[in-house]
Every structure is written in structure tokens, then in C-alpha cells.
Design goal:
The structure is a homodimer.
Chain A (H helix, E strand, L loop, with lengths): L11 H11 L3 E3 L6 E3 L1 H20 L3 E2 L5 E3 H4 L3 H7 L5 E4 L2 E3 L6 E3 L4 E8 L4 H11 L8 E10 L13 E11 L2 H21 L6 E4 L11 E8 L5 E11 L1 H5 L3 E3 L5 E3 L1 E8 L1 H10 L16 E6 L4 H15 L5 E3 L7 H10 L4 E6 H5 L2 E6 L5 E5 L3 H26 L1 E3 L3 H10 L3 E5 L4 H11 L2 E6 L7 E2 L6 E2 L2 E5 L3
Parallel strand pairs in A: 3-9, 17-18, 17-19, 22-23
Antiparallel strand pairs in A: 1-2, 4-8, 5-8, 6-7, 9-10, 10-16, 11-12, 11-24, 12-13, 13-16, 14-15, 19-20, 20-21, 23-27, 24-27, 25-26
Helix pairs in contact in A: 2-6
């Protein structure tokens, strides 16, 4: 099986698609740009969702559900918002089909035209702030800390499974506050939650920063982003958290009576991560043999393969180990299928990124040992049978940690300070990664650099230090470096 | 607060809407027929979903996700299916908006018309069976046991929160099998899972039966249903499980090579329950003071109210109890809010259906007791402080059981055997509930009875006994009774 994957250095994009397909994560669908998330891919999403949901609840949020459809006129209420989303909207215009009077099949019933078209939500700020108007009267109603797990649709021209699809799954938090400061703190808190999730669960270090005005969310005052680095040296925006100021409260006339009994507009945030995180996970850790999964997000954490096939003695040991590990909260699969050879199974579970493989053979059992293989380094060791229940949980932690360290080292090695335009171009094309460079702060320069090199400003890092310098492109004065990269 | 609810015997429909609104379960939205599920209502849905998901996984199913959109032509592939759904479809015809050249706002961009219109899924058999064609080649690929949690849209003319909405949340299982028998067994198994969930978790007894040909799912060979009885004597279809035969396999050309290396069409089932279950829950247990929740699905199972307000001694006891009960897996809220009086809080938690309320007062503490009130019977008792951690879990179980018994007694009392047309009409209008009656087996009679009385055949009960009789309406011979009722 492993042979079927295009090697990374031959064609990175092809490699990615091969893994998504062959590890059984997703499939194309009959609908342009929409994918089918297959059971194995969806199981990873369930793990991500459950963990994020826990983290949202720990920070005081509750879930709710708002309509899929948004009246067209709502989009226009916030000027930047409509500008940002109008060009990629799926529009519902009719509510009925009828038999085709001229043939077979069905056609749209012209009598069932909607008075006002409905947009399939590309994001829900508008419908949610329309609702919040009814929910918020006084400071006692605030803060409102609500999250929604949902599907959204953005009509993208070029799509790729998980990374950019017309329909995708996500969560969107929408909070309302009495003060600007409280809302800013909320946006920062969720930014931090996302960064922590990426590091602690995806084992993917991220750079926390703010977007430039040109790159921020349509309708936001400030957009915080987490940026990860993929193995081909391209950056990937993994999540964003927006401080929306009073823009949506003003657009939808949402006011509250403060403690002094005076009316004020409400302050807002929104924040989201999507199934794109699965794409990020795939590209961060996988290799030419297939998927590599961090143990904390692996649907199967340990697989037991009988060598050469199942039998009483092997079954007994396998069951003992499966039960012992399950009792410690570890997900174990014992693959008893005797129509497939061990070598085939090895390749299959490597392809699927199962972190730990135990091979139980009669000869090893006679010697009181068992073969333990880890997916991340492909190391194999013989572990005494009576130590296996202690060894495997430790090994899973070690793998999780190793993936993070490995990825962090790669990332750190790919942040390059550049101080001339020539250097900028050569590092970008030869090495890739993040380029830490001075920029004159204008949209014009930002766009020009993108036009010339395809690199965009990924973020102004939160921990940036003040430093006087000259813009990499125009030579104009600058007070801090920003991070450029080519990006997904 | 309680006064704000319309009493059941004054206006049952109004009573239902009042509870949904005032308990904070759902709100109307700006989109016709679509509701907003509020945090408290969504928390109930999360509990239902998590429990059902567990039961699906225990019966061998995995989750996946298929596209929201279905190409229009797919619907026409199965003749009965398109007949059943074409008249209530939301149709996407364009993928872009543009600035209105004649004014403000945005309009549909005529240049962005789709070549083929897309239907927002009313159910996913067509897109899923189109996908299964790629996934199924051999008997080794079967059975395929897949479920999806999703939103669907059916353009309903008359809507009511949870019971019938244009968009709703649901799960849809779609399975593929090598034999007719295996698929039938699967449809029956999930029918049974639904019935068990309703009884064990919603505390809502259901009658298991089969739908008549006239009432079955568009495209099914057999539809199994679970039918519950609401307090106004109307039936509510709470879930369905369909044996689809080879209809969809033939429509989408899905074949497999059997063990004898011969091609056969695949056998199918589908099954679903929706957010309608929340409406069923509300109408099954609630009273004129508000919502009554079965403990197993209550977002807050126990609330602790300080009398008359919080203070050191009370806080200490409340925290001790909260921790002790939490350690037993019980969800407890200690309401320290000192801006509201105890009486107000009592009414609020009654409205929200919290199963158990503990009132902690200084005088009671001095006597070493605590007041325990149960929501189902409104009984109050004084329980010694040192017994409270044992008492509350038992009480929650007792409440769960009591709700089931109470509802079952009501239901059993409302299944009436009727043997004449006069009796049929008078029982239907005076007592309501299920009417067990002979029927001649024709669609014509079924429709005529519906036209005359609004009663429909809810199901042919699975445990029906063979018995010769005469059709209640035509007097034609019949071999078994079926259950009629007016229904939601």
C-alpha cells in the first residue's frame, strides 16, 4: 500500500491528496467543491470537537443553534461584511420543484419563488446579532457567551479536501459584552484556547499574532490568528478570533441599559476553527508511508496484530492487553482478520497513522516479549509481556511530545530574519517558511509584495519587539518586523 | 412567572408555545419556519445526541458527513422519493451576489447561475447512495453501517418549534447489506434502539409498529415507527426506521460481488430521529407551571437555593453537597445570585423543569435538615443533612421511573378498542388517544377516514394479534386491528 503514495519531495500537493484518500479521511462528492468526510476522518473531527467543546465550556460558553439561512438583506447591514462575503454565497431562490412539463425529471417551480432570497450562511454574525437584539436589554443580560457547531458554505473557486471546501464544518463563537475591554479580553482568551489546543492536542506549534487591516475579517476591528507551518514551508491559518467592536451591534441596533441606566451599544467578538484543522494535522506530521496521528486525536491509539495469525494463546494475550489498556482509557483494536497477512496489516495501519502497533507472535510469547512499533519514528523494540501495560501509556505520551518537539524544531528553523529585498526573494524561494521582515505598514506595499512573490503577511506576532528598521520593499521606516509567508 | 403560562385545558397549543418560550428552549427567527435553539434547549439536545450516539456505536455504527447539497437530478432517480420530497425543497440556483446597480444593497448576480440547481438536503439517501457506489464492490465491503448528524430542510407550510420546522437537526443512519434479511434485521434493530431510548431516557413509552403503504417513507418497502401519546390525546411520530429493499441500490446502480462471484444489488436501510424529540419531551411531561424534565436528560439535575440568601454557613453546606453529588456524576447548580428572591428562583427552576430543588435555610441547618422538593409531584420533604448525598441520587432515579410509569398509565388508558363507526367518532372527539380498530386494508378507506375525522393510521402494532373483524368504516372483512389517532 505504502507505494501508492506520491513522495513529498516529488509532489507535495499530490502527496497530501493521496494521504487524504488512502487513509480514508475524505472523498470527493458529486457536488462541486464539497467533500464527503469518511468515518475515519470524521472520528478525528469528533475528537477535536469534543476536546474544543470541553475547553469552550471550561471558559464559560454554552452552545446554541441558529438558522442555516440568512435573509439576503441582513448581509448588507454591515458594509465590510457584505463586501467580504457577497461574492461567494450560495443563494436559495425557490422552495419547490415540479415535474418538468416538457420531459422527465423535475424543474424549479417558477411559482415558488421566494420574496426575499436566502443565503446559506457563510458565517453567522448577521443572523445571530439580529437575534441578540431580542435577548439583550440590560447589563444583566451580559456577557452572552455562545458557541455554535455548524456547517457553513463559501463558494470557493479552487478547493482542496479539508483545506478549502465549499461546505465545511466549524464552530463559531459569538459573544456580547458591556465593555470594549471585556470583549477584547474574550477575543484574546479564545485566541489562546486555540493556540493551546493546537499545541497540546494536534502537537502543532502555532505563532500567535494579529492580522493586518488588509487581511482581517470582514467587519472586525482586530483579527487574531494562529499560524502554523506545513512541511513544504507554507503557512496555514489554523484559527481566528475577532474583536468586532460595536460594528454588528450598530448594524443590528443592539443596545443595553448600563448600570447608570444609560443606553450603549454592545461590544462583540466572534471566533472559529474548522475542519481545516484536519488538513493541518495531516500536513504537519505525516510522511511518505501515510498519515501520522498525534495519540490524543487518534481514533485508534494502539493496534494489536497477531503473527502470523490469531490462535488461542495469542488471542488470550491480546485480550488481556486490550482490556488492560482500555481500562486506562486507551483505544485499542485487536485485528483478528485472518484473510489478511501481517505485512498487509502493518502497511494499512501505518497508512492510517495508528501511533502504536503491537505484534504478538508465538515465538516472542515463548520468550515473554512482545514487539512494539511506534509510528512516528518507526522504531521497534521488544518489551517484556509483564511491562506492556505500563510501557504503552508512557510511549503514547512520548510520541505526543516527540511530534510536538519535532514540529517545533522544524518551525523554529524556518523563521528567518531577512533585511533586504534580494534576501527576501531568495529565502522565500529556496527555504520557505516564515520571513521576519520590516514593512512600511501600508496596504499598497503589502499587496505589491503579494503580487510579486505570492507571500502575504501572516501576522504581526503578539510577542514582536519594537525595533527600528526599513521596509524590505520600499525602504520606508518601520518600527517592528512582521511575518511573511506563502500560505494555504 | 408561572402565571404567564396558558393552562393546558384552556389552550393546549398555546401552553406548548409558552413553555418553549419561557423555559428558554427556542425562539422564532427572522427566517420563515426556522427556529433558534437556545442554550437550554440545545443542552437537552446535546444529552439526547450523546446518548443516541453511544447506542449507535454500541450497535456497530460509525459517523460520517455527506454534503448539504444534492444535485437536482439525483432526486429524480428514485420515483417515489422525488414524489415525496420535490414539493418542499429549498433550491440553490446562484452562487454569488453583486451590488444592486439600481440602488443600495445586494442582488443575485445573474451571471452566477448554476448549471444544475442544488437542493438543500431534505434527507440524504440520494447523495449517500451515489457515494456508496464508489465504496462498495464486494461482499467484503459490507455491511456498511454509517450514521450522520446533520441539519436538513423541508419547506413546511405550517411550522411549530421543534415539532415541525423548515430546518431541523437530526441523525440519519444509512446502511448497506448483502441480504434482504440482514437489512430487515438492521431496520428492526434501530427501531428497537429508538423505542428503548424513548422509554429509558425521555421516560416516554412508545408503541412500535409498521406504517401503512400510504404513510410509509418515500422510497421504502417498510417503515417502522414509534408512536407516542401527548397529553392532549394526539399521537406523535417520534422516530422511523426504513427497510429500503434494493430501491436506492437500483436507482444509483450499487452492486456487489457476492461470495459466489455474482453481482447483486445491495440491500438498504435508513433511520432517523430529530429535534422533534424535544417537542415530544415537553408535551409528554410538562404541566401548567412549566417544563418537567426526566433527570437523565436534564441539563441541571439539582438546583440549590439559599434561604433567604447566601452566607458563610449556607455556602459551606451548599458546596459540600454540590461536590458530593458531582462526584456521583450529578449536575448541580448552586444559585448564589443575591439579586433575586427565593420565591422568584423557585418559580424559575420550576419553569425550567429542574428535577430536584434543595432549599438550604439557616433554621433548617440548625435542625440538621434540608428541604428537598421534587418537580414531578411537587412534594417537599425534610431530609437530614447527613443523608442528602444518598437521598438525592435515589430520588432522581425515582423521578425518572415515576415519569415513565405516569406516562405509561396515561397512554395505556388511552388505547380504546372501538367496533363501530359511531363509537370511533365519539371516542375520537371525547377521549382522544389511540383507537384500536379494524380496517379493510385499502388506501381509499384510510384516506376517507382521515378526510372525515382527521385521524390517521399511526401504525400496525408489531404485537398485533390476528383476529377477524369488520372494517370500522366500510364493514369489509379485516384480520387485525390497527391504531388510529389524530397526530402531530
Amino acid at each position: 500500500m505504502a507505494k501508492q503514495i506520491t513522495p513529498r519531495d516529488e509532489d507535495y500537493s499530490r502527496w497530501y491528496i493521496d494521504i487524504v484518500k488512502k487513509a480514508g479521511l475524505a472523498d470527493n462528492s458529486a457536488v462541486r467543491g464539497c467533500m464527503v468526510i469518511k468515518p475515519y476522518g470524521y472520528a478525528i473531527w469528533e475528537k477535536m470537537r469534543d476536546q474544543l467543546d470541553l475547553m469552550f465550556k471550561e471558559t464559560g460558553h454554552v452552545n446554541a443553534y441558529f438558522p442555516l439561512f440568512i435573509p439576503k438583506s441582513f448581509l448588507s447591514r454591515e458594509a465590510e461584511h457584505v463586501e467580504g462575503f457577497a461574492k461567494e454565497c450560495a443563494v436559495v431562490t425557490h422552495h419547490r420543484l415540479m415535474n418538468d412539463p416538457h420531459g422527465s425529471g423535475v424543474v424549479v417551480d417558477p411559482d415558488a419563488k421566494l420574496e426575499e432570497e436566502l443565503i446559506v450562511r457563510p458565517t453567522s454574525e448577521t443572523i445571530i446579532w439580529h437575534t441578540y437584539k431580542d435577548w439583550i436589554q440590560s447589563y444583566r443580560d451580559l456577557p452572552l457567551l455562545i458557541n455554535q457547531w455548524a456547517n457553513v458554505v463559501r463558494w470557493e473557486m479552487r478547493t482542496r479536501p479539508f483545506l478549502r471546501t465549499t461546505e465545511f464544518l466549524w464552530q463559531e463563537g459569538h459573544t456580547a459584552h458591556t465593555t470594549s475591554q471585556e470583549a477584547e479580553e474574550e477575543a484574546e482568551r479564545m485566541h489562546e484556547v486555540y493556540a493551546r489546543f493546537c499545541e497540546d492536542f494536534i502537537a502543532m506549534p502555532v505563532i500567535k499574532g494579529a492580522k493586518t487591516d488588509n487581511e482581517k475579517f470582514a467587519g472586525a476591528i482586530e483579527t487574531y490568528t494562529i499560524e502554523a507551518l506545513m512541511q513544504d514551508g507554507k503557512a496555514l491559518q489554523a484559527g481566528t478570533s475577532h474583536f468586532l467592536g460595536q460594528n454588528f451591534a450598530k448594524a443590528f441596533d443592539v443596545k443595553f441599559l448600563n448600570k447608570e441606566n444609560k443606553e450603549e451599544h454592545v461590544w462583540a467578538t466572534s471566533w472559529g476553527v474548522t475542519t481545516r484543522l484536519i488538513g493541518a494535522l495531516v500536513m504537519t506530521h505525516s510522511d511518505d508511508e501515510g498519515l501520522v496521528l498525534p495519540p490524543k486525536l487518534a481514533p485508534i491509539q494502539v493496534v494489536i496484530v497477531p503473527i502470523p495469525k490469531p490462535g488461542d494463546e495469542i488471542d488470550e494475550q491480546a485480550e488481556r492487553i486490550r482490556k488492560g489498556l482500555s481500562a486506562k482509557g486507551i483505544t485499542v483494536k485487536y485485528d483478528r482478520d485472518d484473510t489478511k497477512r501481517p505485512g498487509f496489516k502493518f502497511a494499512e495501519y501505518e497508512m492510517k497513522g495508528v501511533p502504536v502497533r503491537l505484534a504478538i507472535g508465538k515465538r516472542d510469547l515463548a520468550n515473554g516479549v512482545i514487539e512494539v512499533a511506534r509510528r512516528d519514528t518507526k522504531e521497534k523494540t521488544s518489551i517484556p509481556l509483564d511491562q506492556i501495560l505500563e510501557h504503552v501509556p508512557q510511549l503514547l505520551e512520548e510520541i505526543q511530545e516527540n511530534l510536538l518537539q519535532r514540529t517545533r524544531a522544524y518551525r523554529d528553523d524556518h523563521i528567518t530574519e531577512v533585511d533586504s529585498w534580494e534576501e527576501f526573494q531568495s529565502v522565500l524561494s529556496d527555504k520557505g517558511g516564515f520571513l521576519s521582515a520590516h514593512w512600511d505598514g501600508t496596504v499598497a506595499t503589502e499587496k505589491k509584495i503579494k503580487e510579486l512573490t505570492k507571500a502575504t503577511i501572516r501576522c504581526i506576532p503578539l510577542d514582536v519587539k519594537q525595533e527600528s528598521g526599513k521596509c524590505i520593499y520600499t525602504g520606508e521606516p518601520s518600527t517592528r518586523r512582521v511575518l511573511f509567508a506563502k500560505a494555504y
